[in-house]
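#data-curation
PF: Archiving a pair of folding outputs for the training set. Convention for this channel: one message per protein, sequence first, structure tokens after, nothing in between. First:
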Amino acid sequence: MRKHILLVTIPSYGHIIPLLELARRIAPFHRVTFAVSQFELGEIRQRELVSSEDPFTLHGIPDGYFLLESEKSQSGQIFQKIHQFVIPGTVAFLKALPIPSPHDTDHKNEGSAPSLQDPVDVVIGDNILGVALRVLHERGIPFHIFNTASSSMTYVSLLVCEDTPSRPDPPNDNQMKFIEAPDPTVTPKPISDAIKTMFLQMHEMTLLAAGIVENSVYELEVDAVEAIRKHPDMQGRPFRSVGPLIPTTERTSGTNGERAKEIEAWLDKQESLSVIYISFGTVAAPKVADMQEIIGALKAIGKPFIWSLRKEEQARLPAELLSEISDWSLGLVRNWVPQKLVLQHRATSVFVTHCGWNSSLEAIAYGVPVVAWPMFADQMLNGLGLVRKGMAVLIQGTGITSDIVVSGEELKSALMGVGVGGVTNRGEDNPFRKAALAWKETLKVATSPGGSSHAEFLELMKF
């Protein structure tokens, strides 16, 4: 029987995008509704993350959440507003969900698109929603926790307990720090009160959930996955790695379509493995001094580049610097870049990234070596993971709260070391690209019929 599955997440694109892809994959098996803060619906459609062809229903939660343009680069402010508006709004939303009566044997209109007047059989809820998911347990609605980050982060949440030392968060702190993995062999360092609370809530909900769904691949994180499965609180509770949840196509029409065509035409003119691609995601960006050093490094290397840099970040740079970049005719600085198109193109050589988990998975899936420039939250853990996989070099001293200015010389050295142009600065075959391509093949096998992610997904569909 096709069940009605509700997916609910927070208004953050690092969470929205993989859960939308999960919704698409579930839809051939079950009827699906995707719910997120009403505030985000317009931008989701504007970004073409959904279309009328998608086989699921999109629902806006009237939780009162909003974000000013000036707040979009303040990770701490976003986190605070999620707790102020989204969590209580989600509680009210979940309390009002219709659920099947004990006498229902099937649903009406089983073949049609669902609405939230139809009883909900199962919920897949974003782990950041924390205690809001307790409502589902109280109402007897089975739910799975969705973790949009790495399996290592899930393991961190299981290690944090009431005895974990913590420190107060500074008042008016609008930026989130790095999250460190606790080392069980040493005395744990104090973590932020807010982060501790978040992990404790995740841990509590794990004890109530039917299972955990992970946007990862077993072979990428074998040690973390095995540690999770052996944890006492996970006994009898499935942990399913069903990733990477990367959309197979990048919808581009209208203005974005024209921009994508421009970028693809420019890439087609470049030599193979010659282009440096730079993107720091949708929230954080380096300091102005760091960006000036990046420009200096690009100028010194003299290789073509594409830099995805939001308009508000471009406005922080001296006008003469942006003008100088345009005069080089070497690179493109754009407010929006079709990332999957760029990473898959034969011309792309290296990806300078903040190491958000989605970007990290895309680098692996497309076999592109990385210069890791983490900014906050789990991004340092992700960057170190890419380094251990042999496909990345980590820039030291980065971070949204760091006072260190990364030198252009260090970035130049990292880019040449990883292999701009397909070879390292020592002239040998590029070991970083070899490692990246090997991991790309691992993901391809995992998502093919009989592979680990494919098998885990089919098990999940049995709900």
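PF: Second:
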Amino acid sequence: MRRSENGKRDIWIAGILGVVIVALATYLLVDHRSQSTASTDSPAVTGHHSSLARLHPHDPLALGPVDAPVVLIIYSDYRCPFCAKFSRDTEPQLIERYVNAGKLRIEWRDLPIFGTQSVQAAKAGRAAAEQGRFWEFNRAVYRHAPDRGHAELTDKILLDRAREAAVPDLARFQTAVEGDRLLPAVQQDIQEAVAIGAASTPVFLINDQPVVGAQPLDVFISVIEQAQR
């Protein structure tokens, strides 16, 4: 029975990674620039996608009020060093300056592009979200991420991060990570990212303005301020 469940999970993950590989291949044909130097006007991501904001009042993968004038959607991978840089250096300042003032809503999307561990981490984030600890888990993972290279995120490490994030029921968390119940939600996020041409991480949509890569804080402030006008 256990082998059958693992086989089913592997098929799901293979399908998800297949979608990502196709998206990456398309991206490489369109735009050869490095994700670390991408700019706010990258042709790999098309604008006018503010309708992608889900605005669910009780979405555990979101911060800020649903009626905020600006919505920032993050397409991110837990193993991405540039995503970690944004989480550590930029996101806290955006929260303090805009989210806490009711001017900005942040919505998370999973875009796991760095293999099976990325997919497992995406499921882990959602497993933490089910217990009201998504952002705590999210920050715990990125807090330990290396400045370069991809973080090692085995199931054991994910469990350690859940413990650090004070996820109350670790057995329930582990069961969710090992199973395939949360994979369709991850796949939905990937399909959304592919639809707008996002095949690298991190990618952001600020209302209808794409921002690609871990840009300096001033870039985000400029786009947010412009979106409020």
